[in-house]
Amino acid sequence: MTPENSPAASGGFAKLGIIAGGGNLPGRLIAACRRDGRPFFVLALEGFADSAVLGDAPTAWVRLGAVGDAIRILHEHAVTQVVLAGAVRRPSLTDLRPDWRAARLFARIGMKALGDDGLLRHVVEELENEGFSVIGADDLLGDEILAPLGILGRHQPDEQAMADVLHGVRIARALGAMDVGQGAVVQQGLVLAVEAIEGTDDMLGRCAALRRDGLGGVLVKTSKPGQEQRVDLPTIGVTTINNAHAAGLRGVAVQAGGALMVDRAGIIARADALGLFVMGVAVADEAP
Fold first, then answer.
1. pLDDT single digits (tens) 109-127
2. What is the pTM of this model?
3. Are 280 and 221 in contact (CB under 8 A)?
4. Coil, strand or helix: which one is 154?
5. Helix (H/G/I), strand (E/B), else coil: 260
């Protein structure tokens, strides 16, 4: 009899642990594993992961601050590769209730002094020290998930929109260099909002009341200069398009090759229907 987790039984794939936050990306990874015959297990983060997205996938739930439990569960399920997928809003230390393993990690790195990318680098390091190989969602989904370069739908940005996109890239990269956020909204050269701890959807919610008369603005999302590319790449989905439209924006631009598009076909179809342009823009590797 071939053991369930042996390479022969799993088509040569290592068993994948999907650490699932919010949104639809964990579901896309589950579907890809099933399509490819890759063995997998889901570690769902309480308060973030959506049980409807996870469906009947083999799953254990763990709170964000229970790092020791999370590592133990992954080992118990013979996971050797790990992917972090989905949105997670960092709570306060009071809400986090860190266990001994998390408390030791925070004491070592000084959590209060770190932004999201700095913290995630240490989380990746902790997982690797435990023997897990950490991979990115794009390693599994490839071209179907990474934003390509160019215009992706029927609608084209005009000269003002392109000027706003380029300004938004500069703003987003400057924010990213300080490990603050990944996005900005620009209208007619004015920065209406920048993304911080609230996330893209809440940032867009604020923009509806801030918009100026005349041509609508644009949402721009880029990765942070020097970002750990396996985790927390900027991500958009159909909900992003809906929220951008509700905020009165004319388009969405993301970093080509450095941002994730969950359900690209759905994003393009929704943007076409609502009259928004969607595009992937080239971003220089160097910090601004």
1. 665 445 555 667 778 888 9
2. 0.84
3. no
4. coil
5. strand
User: Dihedrals φ, ψ of 252, to 5°?
Assistant: -135, 130
Identity of the residue numbered 32? A
Residues 6+ apart with CB under 8 A from 175: 181, 182, 184, 194, 195
In whole angstroms, give the CA distance from residue 196 to residue 175.
9
The token duo for 184 is: 């900005």
Q: Per DSSP, which regions of the chain are E strands?
A: 16-20, 40-45, 59-62, 81-85, 133-135, 150-151, 183-187, 190-194, 218-221, 235-236, 251-255, 260-261, 277-281
> In one letter, which amino acid is 239?
T
Angle between helices 116-129 and 67-76 (to 10 degrees): 40
The structure tokens 């260099």 sit at: 177
**CB-neighbour burial class of residue 4 (10 A; exposed 0-12, middle 13-18, buried 19+):** exposed
Residue 247 contacts residue 211 (beta carbons within 8 Å): yes
Higher-confidence residue: 147 or 180?
147
Cβ atoms 167, 282 nearer than 8 A = no
Residues 226/260, Cβ–Cβ less than 8 Å: no
Residue 4, pLDDT score = 40
Rg (CA), the chain: 20
User: What residue type is 93 in one-letter code?
Assistant: L
99, 69 in Cβ contact below 8 A? Answer: yes
The CA distance from 97 to 105, in Å, is 13
CA distances from 173 to 169, 184, 282 (A): 6, 9, 12
All domains in the chain, ordered by first residue: 16-141 (3.40.50.20), 146-281 (3.40.140.80)
